[in-house]
Design a protein that fits this description.
Blueprint lengths: L4 E6 L3 H9 L6 E7 L6 H8 L3 E3 L3 H5 L4 E6 L3 H13 L3 E4 L11 H4 L8 E3 L3 H17 L1 E11 L5 H5 L1 H14 L5 E9 L7 E9 L4 H16 L5 E3 L4 E3 L2 E8 L11 H27 L1
Helix pairs in contact: 1-10, 6-8, 6-9, 6-10
Length: about 290
């Protein structure tokens, strides 16, 4: 497979531009274009400086390009609801980094394989990308009856979009804990910490399980951490899993890669890392299907 699948990013804000850096030099995916709606935005300027085509005509610039097969939407929930049907009509796969949830929830290490042919996949939330893999790992060996996660992020890393979508964050993450993580019930809490210097993203996961096998739970969690680290290098356990009766507590810290966003913004970095990992796998699948025909 020598060819690559061409892709585009809608939304040249912090998340879109960090994703741009993560999509450089990929094996199966080639970023072709970054589009927005503000002619002289800083993001479009950076994209041009890095050799990518740009447009301030928004999604129309992408729909007109038949070569682009994968589109990363880093705008917002409301715009994506408009973009999703247009992308589908034009045979472009949408990887949605917004809370719109048009397509199925996807966490690369947990369930991406099941949705490689979906026209639209949704990346849940930053808290979901960090914690759902751990809940899924525990559920596999111990049957999670209840999962509760507390995501603590630096106030500085929470822009207007994050703040406006706090309710959606908690609801979407809770649903993801159930639908993807496999918990019978789920709850999510987010805390914006104003500390200076800014803190790293930290997530605490509390679960109640039916089969509290300490050895199996610890093994499953450690294995899952290593899988996530393959595309989020700053993803790590703060302490080994704490198992007290049927209660399992896991504490994580996520340091960003620092491609464009500061390293403390692990909450944003894990979303762009998950998007890049999902895009690469989907592109590989498209190339394999093309070769098979």
């Amino acid at each position: 497979m020598t060819n690559k699948i061409k892709a585009a990013i809608i939304g040249p804000g912090n998340i879109g531009i960090d994703l741009m850096y993560k999509l450089m030099n990929r094996k199966y995916i080639e970023l072709d274009m970054v589009v927005g709606i503000i002619p002289e935005s800083e993001g479009l300027k950076l994209a041009r400086e890095n050799g990518f085509k740009t447009s301030h005509e928004g999604i129309d610039a992408i729909l007109a390009n038949e070569e682009i097969k994968i589109v990363f939407d880093a705008t917002g929930a409301r715009p994506h609801l408009l973009h999703a049907p247009l992308l589908k009509e034009n045979n472009k796969i949408a990887i949605d980094l917004t809370p719109a949830a048009v397509g199925p929830y996807v966490v690369p290490v947990v369930n991406l394989e099941e949705h490689l042919k979906s026209p639209n996949v949704n990346l849940v939330t930053c808290g979901g990308q960090a914690t759902i893999p751990i809940v899924a790992a525990i559920n596999k060996v111990a049957d999670v009856k209840y999962a509760e996660i507390v995501a603590t992020i630096s106030s500085k890393s929470a822009g207007p979009g994050t703040r406006q979508n706090i309710d959606e964050f908690t609801q979407t993450t809770a649903r993801g804990l159930v639908e993807v993580g496999g918990a019978d019930k789920g709850k999510a809490i987010i805390i914006l910490n104003p500390a200076e210097p800014p803190i790293m993203m930290r997530d605490t996961i509390y679960t109640r399980v039916a089969n509290p096998d300490e050895k199996e739970i610890t093994r499953a969690v450690l294995e899952m951490v290593e899988k996530v680290k393959q595309y989020v290098p700053g993803y790590q356990l703060k302490v080994p899993p704490i198992i007290e009766g049927d209660k399992v507590t896991v504490m994580l810290e996520i340091e960003g890669a620092g491609h464009y966003l500061p390293k403390y913004a692990g909450n944003l970095d894990i979303m762009t890392a998950a998007a890049a990992a999902a895009g690469e796998k989907i592109a590989q699948s498209l190339l394999e299907a093309k070769e098979g025909n």
